[in-house]
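Supplementary Text 2. Reproducibility record for the structural model of the 143-residue chain.

All settings were left at their defaults, and a single model was retained for analysis rather than an ensemble. We include the record here because the model underlies the residue-level annotations in Supplementary Table 4.
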Amino acid sequence: MPSATTRRLARKQSGFRRFAQAVSNLVGTPAAFGIALAVVIVWGVLGPIFHFSDTWQLVINTGTTIITFLMVFLVQHTQNRETEAIRLQLDELIWSIRAARNQMLDVDELTDEELRALRDEYRRIASRSRSALRDRASSVRHE
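Retained model, structure tokens:
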């Protein structure tokens, strides 16, 4: 049974996960882009009023840097979580298909050379499949 500390940590992580997902979903909308564009336009229009001062430039530079810095972590967290979920779904599919090679379940543990060899093998399979498909299409047209 998990300890109280483990449960508290899980709740905090769950809260962060929900927050990161919500922010990621929100900033990926056309409305969020519109707001960001409006901020930049307003900032640009205010340039002549502030005589394009260093402070005027610092406002946009500092604001965008802070927002970008924070967003990198939120979006990366969301992306990591979604990638892990997709990997688990693919693992389930591989495991459940009798003809599948179960060695593919931990393909991410392979060396770069092993991954290249595997990719080349799948490219050869795809090439043979395309050739077979073209041959079938050609024979159908000639009938």
